[in-house]
Amino acid sequence: MFQPVIVVLMLVSFTCGENPAVQVTLTNKGLQYGKHVGAGWIQEKLDLVTLPDISGTILKFIHYTFSGVTITKCDFPEPSVEFYQDITGFNTSISGLSVAVIGRWMTRVGLIHDGGSFNMAIFNMDVTSVVKLGKDADGHLSVTSARCEAHVANVDVRFQGGASRWFQPFVEHFKGRIKGEIEASICPGVEKYIVDLEHYLQAMKVSFDVGENVTFDLPLTGMPVINASSLNLGLKGEFYDMKSHTEPPFKAKPFTVPEQPGYMLSVGLSEFTLNSASYVAYEAHRLQAVINESMIPPYLHMHLNTSWMGPYIPQLPKMFPGLLMNLQVYARAVPIFSFQPGVVKLGFQGAVKALAIQPNGTQTPLFKLNVDSTNSGKVWIDGGRLKGSVRLDNFTVTLESSEVGSFQTDPLEHLMKAGMTLVIAKLNVELGTGVLLPRMKHVQLVNTVLGMEEGFIAISSDAELFETDRGFN
Ligand SMILES: *[C@@H]1O[C@H](CO)[C@@H](O)[C@H](O)[C@H]1NC(C)=O
Ligand SMILES: *[C@@H]1O[C@H](CO)[C@@H](O)[C@H](O)[C@H]1NC(C)=O
Ligand SMILES: *[C@@H]1O[C@H](CO)[C@@H](O)[C@H](O)[C@H]1NC(C)=O
Ligand SMILES: *[C@@H]1O[C@H](CO)[C@@H](O)[C@H](O)[C@H]1NC(C)=O
Ligand SMILES: *[C@@H]1O[C@H](CO)[C@@H](O)[C@H](O)[C@H]1NC(C)=O
Ligand SMILES: *[C@@H]1O[C@H](CO)[C@@H](O)[C@H](O)[C@H]1NC(C)=O
Ligand SMILES: *[C@@H]1O[C@H](CO)[C@@H](O)[C@H](O)[C@H]1NC(C)=O
Fold first, then answer.
1. Distance between CA atoms of 259 and 182, rounded to whole angstroms?
2. pLDDT in tens, 201-223
3. Which of 135, 160, 311, 394 could join 220 via S-S bond, C-beta 3.0 to 4.6 A?
4. Alpha-carbon distance values, 468 to 41, 92, 190, 442 (Å)
């Protein structure tokens, strides 16, 4: 009786799986660029390729081997690659590929050996490979060969040396056979390449250590999504404490990165990623600091001692004359980032505990303030650098508890707000200079633009690939 309900619940739990906090979209422009670069690499590598030996038997008693087969010339037309929605993959094809090779031939008939060299031309090969994308249990992208077809229009072989003068006339007769052998060897080669690629993808990390106790998890959250114009990957994008691995009390919300066909790729980053980092830092008690006199920047013209605080808390220098002070600053709640069109907001609920340092080193609690602020920031990309600015929107100070009797917090609020404003002004100088966009070993982002949307940041970019020495094996 409950079975239909269970089935519905299972369906719901599958379809409403976790939302990705990071989304990567490859557009057709990116696919075509990748193909173009890849084809160039293959063309260069082909000049160095020595093909495997081909052996066989003709007329049941003539054993032959072609060895040292080397490509001397190759007409490598631009392949075509398309997104293939029906199977969630790619359709790659190359047509009109012609290759000239040289090599050595050997025959054996009973005890009689013969040999020489040969030239062969393979005309108008067509190869189509359909590759299916998926996701394995650990969240790696997977590739499998769904279909491969190879067709050779014609071959021409010229033998030299040995008894070739006698059998060259018969070559015409065995051409179909040689053509078939070549056709039969192409798809296993293509499939081996796809298997190597799959091994490479399986070995890729989906979790990255960030510092000592934190990991950044980036497995796929669902199957890749492909349509005629793009490939979309949804990735987890969550920071975790390595030991506790606890989930924060909030979840990633779904979002849709608008398609940008003019750029090769787009990345959407949810506010959830930042908030998961914030949660980890808060839970590990890392959002706290002790501030003492020597840490106050000189430009603030403040002193952390009981006399200097006199104008704000008149009773303080009377009760504790001439003592240095410490401030323990900490977050009272997880600071939450919220991305909105054009701006990122940060709400911070903090507390400041003031202590007097006695001559014998004992720290005497004085009072505790609650400090709540909202900040807004902007981030943009300019000249290949990531830049930003921050603003203090709201800043309130309230007295939470006091060991020195009550006092007005307004003057302190003004003082702290002025201090914050100065610190933020200094920070904005740094943020205005920005940091260079990260440049990976084999990829550089160019023409990068960044936009803040409701709940996520969208980054669209073109890329430049550089040749790597290491392949997939
Ligand atoms: C794959 O691409 C080739 C060339 O564009 C095309 O002829 C073929 O029909 C395509 N196959 C599929 C299954 O889309
Ligand atoms: C990592 O955790 C250990 C044990 O909890 C702690 O002692 C250490 O300070 C932490 N490291 C960082 C960088 O927070
Ligand atoms: C492909 O999917 C994207 C969203 O992932 C959408 O914006 C786009 O319009 C789709 N394109 C086609 C041709 O269906
Ligand atoms: C302030 O704290 C720092 C680091 O904790 C310490 O090196 C310094 O001596 C302290 N200064 C004072 C005046 O207590
Ligand atoms: C406290 O600050 C005042 C400046 O307001 C300074 O003149 C005085 O020397 C400081 N006292 C101590 C104990 O550091
Ligand atoms: C340190 O000095 C304070 C104030 O003079 C006193 O109350 C406290 O007992 C002293 N502590 C120690 C450990 O001597
Ligand atoms: C600033 O905070 C106060 C107290 O929390 C609140 O009443 C006020 O609406 C806030 N103002 C803005 C602009 O957020």
1. 43
2. 999 999 999 888 999 999 999 99
3. 135
4. 9, 22, 20, 7
CATH homologous superfamily for the domain 207-460: Bactericidal permeability-increasing protein; domain 2 (3.15.20.10)
Instruction: Give tens-digit pLDDT for 283-319.
Output: 999 999 999 999 998 988 889 999 999 999 999 999 9
CB 304 within 8 A of CB 363: no
Ligand 4 mutation target, pool 290, 295, 325, 362, most atoms within 8 A of CB = 295
Among the listed residues 307, 305, 352, 297, the one whose alpha carbon sits nearest the alpha carbon of residue 324: 305
CA dist 461 to 29, 220, 231, 235, 367, Å? Answer: 11, 21, 15, 18, 51
The full set of domain ranges for the chain reads: 28-205, 207-460
Q: What residue has token string 């704000």?
A: 312
Residue-wise pLDDT for 79-89, tens only, equals 999 999 999 99
Judge residue 438's burial from the number of C-beta atoms within 10 Å of its C-beta, 0-12 exposed, 13-18 middle, 19 or more buried: exposed
Q: For 108-119, give the DSSP string.
A: EETTEEEEEEEE
Output the pTM of the full model.
Answer: 0.84
CB atoms within 10 A of CB 172: 10
Find the 357 Cα to ligand 6 centroid distance in Å: 10
* β-bridge pairing 62-75 and 50-51: antiparallel
Evaluate whether the domain defined by 28-205 bears CATH number 3.15.10.10.
yes
* pLDDT for 269: 95
Report the percent of the chain where pLDDT is more than 70.
Answer: 95
Give the DSSP per-residue string, 64-117: EEEEEEEEEEEE-PPPEEEEEGGGTEEEEEEEEEEEEEEEEEEEEETTEEEEEE
> Ligand 1 pocket, 91 CB below 6 A?
yes
CA of 362 to the centre of ligand 6 (A): 6
DSSP classification of residue 305: B
DSSP sequence for 237-270: -EEEETTT-PPPSS-PPP--PPP-TTSSEEEEEE
**363, amino acid identity:** Q
Average pLDDT, the chain: 89
Per-residue pLDDT at 58:
77
